[in-house]
Amino acid sequence: EKKMSEQNLGKVENDEQKVQNEGETNANSERGNNVPLSLRSGATFTEHNESTSSTTGDKNGAKKERTAQSEESDNTTSSTKTPTTSPSTSTDSSKDFQEEVRQTVNILKYSVRYNYKHTIQSPCLCCVGVGAVLFVVLGAVIASAVLASLRIVFFRQSELLNGENDFTFSPPSSLGYRTLNYTAFNERGREKFGDTYERSSPRFEISSVRLTNNATCNSNLSNRNARYSPFTESACDNSYVCVISACSKTSSPPLIPLIAINSEREKWIGLGRDSNIVLKKNEAIIDPTTLTVLGGAIGSTIWVEIAVNGIYSSFITSKFGSIFETDLINSTRALRLIESYPIVAVPLKVVGTLRSGTGKIKSDQGEFILADYDTLFETILEHQHPSLDILIDAGLWEGFNMSHFASKIYLNLPPDRAAAYSELNYDNLQRRLITYVTPLVEFLGFSQLNVQVPLLSTMLTFSYLSLFLGLLINIVIAVFCGLSIVLIYSLLMITMHKRSFEHGVMRMLGLNNFGITIFVLMQTAIYAVPGLVFGLVFGLVSGLVSVLVSDFALVSDFVFFVFLLVEYQFRSFFLGIV
Fold this sequence. Notes:
It is a single chain. The protein is of the alpha+beta class. It contains 19 helices and nine strands. The radius of gyration is 50 Å and the shape is elongated. The chain starts with a helix and ends with a helix. Residues about 30-60, about 70-85, about 230-235 and about 550-555 have low confidence and may be disordered.
């Protein structure tokens, strides 16, 4: 009985082991061939179980082959078909895009409120950040204003040293010419180029005249016969002029150059913008030093002794030639009379004073007297020696035009001439000016004119200084900008460290990296935008005030300065964005 019970117990265990092995075999066969063989086989398989397992493996292998073939046929079929997009897919993508936009807008709104709330709670950090940006932008604007004003300062300084004229035409000394025909210069230029070169004005210069204050005279010299010998009781001097012996208290009256100008035309072209006096017949402008030496004042009458022998000879020769003869006089007698009475005493009323180096007269001119260009020769004929009246009666001065005789012709650029000198590069400035004047000189003839550009030499010196200052200012601005960036970065690090817990909570609630980036950018904008706005406004105001209170600020220069200042605002704006 005991042996039989042991045998029955062994059978039961074998049956349970078979059932267990069959269950594992079926489970492994359902997984397919992807499961390793060592996991599908039992540790103590019998031969029956091994045959069952092999049969199941063969079935699974056949099933796998059929599945691979069907997939291969499906892939072949799908490759031959044209792919189509489902309408529902595009609708879903548009909805997703709208949802992303809406979420982004909500994040922006919340980030603005969030950062504004925390900024109010930490005003010191906000003030430091805004002040850093304000300092950089304001410094950049002021530096830009300095660079913009440097151009005007150097341009204005060049004008004070050399006069407010861009081009000076004079007769070539190699050909022996003494004057230019301003009428031909003006008319031929207008016929060929229109109004391009119309802003010109003539001048006639006499190298030396002698001045005497009428207030020092012992007798009345209003009568022309009283001014010259032999119409007086005794000979006055070798030139038959009695002004010195009758008036002057000094033995050596001052000798200065006389410059005849067309004041109205020079005012129109911008030559002497500071001088508002328009000269008329028998009027003069004199430098203050000479007027003080003469003991005169504005309103005084000054006797001007002019040597007219060279002027008369050149005028007559240009009209009649070296040999001529009229009913009353011939060339020999006319020239003898001119040499016999070479001095003419002309009374001029002082209507104003003008210092050299103010734009109309260059700084190295020294003493001078200005008279009206159009009426100078007429005034000389009225006050010449009575013996020379026969030249008038002979018709030598008939049809005489003073515009045919100009010692120099001044030509200026169009009214926006300050913009032409805004170029800090000297080579570009020189090329611009030469390109402007070359067509006119080529048309009139290179050999007929001597052309000078007086402002270029001075601008060359100033251009080097301007480039150096510009480089220095840019380096300083770059250093300040770097320091501001480091300071704002440190403030952002402090702010992010204080809000790390809050940001972590936001990430747990679903805020992604893009949302965190928006929060950081909004905090940066709170620092940058107020400093940028206030820096641009304050810098612009300070630049305008500086040019308004300066001595060199003129109307045309002020407009050009505003243009340059607004131009430089863009650079300051981009610095603020950085």
